Amino acid sequence: MNIQNLKYFSVVAHLENVSKAAELLHTSQSSVSKNILNLEKELGTQLFERHGRRLILSEAGQHFLKRCDRILAETDNALQELKHLQDGDNIIRISTAGAERHLSECLAAFLQSYSNVEYVINSFWPGGGIPDINQVDVMIYPDDERFRKYDGYDFYTEKPLLAVPKANPLAERASVPTRMLSGESFIFLRNGEETEYPLQVCLSQNVQMGSVHYVDSRELQMQMIQCGIGIGFLAEESEELFRQENAIRLLHLADNRFSRSMKVCFKRDKHLSALAAAFKEHMIRYYHLSGNEPGAPDHISAFSQSPPPVKRVVRDAGYKPALPASV
Predict the structure, then answer these.
(1) What's the longest Cα–Cα distance across the chain?
(2) Are 197 and 260 in contact (CB under 8 A)?
(3) Are residues 81 and 97 both part of a single domain?
(4) How many domains does the structure of the chain reveal?
(5) Are residues 249 and 169 in contact, defined by beta-carbon separation less than 8 angstroms?
(6) 151-200: pLDDT as tens digits
(7) In terms of Cα–Cα distance, which of 96, 88, 137, 135 is closest to 116?
(8) Domain contains 326
(9) CB contact at 8 A, 169 and 230
(10) pTM metric for this prediction
(11) pLDDT tens across 68-84, in order?
């Protein structure tokens, strides 16, 4: 018994006609008939009852077809997974405008079930151009007008902290209202012509800033703050990286306008590789992204939870051959 025998049997069983099956399989009628006869001989039972040109499944054939279709579906899944691996589709591509540290725990959990996966993660600044979702599997982005065309899940709320030098009078406070930012010198992150979004909040709230400095790396920004050159904003998720710096104090901002909602979307299912589809399912379950109704678990708190089991995504076991339009 081989896969060709099973495939020929399945196509004939669904079409109930050898000539149409031969047309679909791009082979001769005699080849199809020979494969069916060989299969019946090997199984020791008659799979079809012949009524003129029609072949009707016998009782044994009906039972065997269910098993046969499952075998063909599993074979097709295996071949597709091998093809994805050979084509480099063991790669998960992610573009993100934040959440790198939150995301890392989810990536590590997925790696436990799919040890061959490779991640390619690119950070982007919304003002520097919006990534093409067709070029990545996952995109994490701010919930604003520029991204309205994407139908994403609510992901989490990004809440920046204010980083100030220890000697700054603000360092004695636990939180800072916007009005107390006036007169301070600031150090902002900039990528090309795009500056981090807290600058826009400061401008919209008429914060009277002293000198304004721009840097292109978080590390340089923190070094300048340590030296007392100015104050700056730091994503809450990066808090642990700089909390140990004795020369810096990290303060909460009293104004919620400095916070922004983040969303996550995925490439269309039909364009996802089998591995990327499995990662999408994993991420949705890990962060409870399907639970956006009131009362659902908070997405941030979900970061510390153990992920639920990951199921591999496979094709429908109910294998159906592609039929000609005329059938």
Answers:
(1) 97
(2) yes
(3) no
(4) 3
(5) no
(6) 899 998 988 999 999 999 999 999 999 999 999 999 998 877 778 889 99
(7) 88
(8) no
(9) no
(10) 0.58
(11) 988 998 888 777 666 65
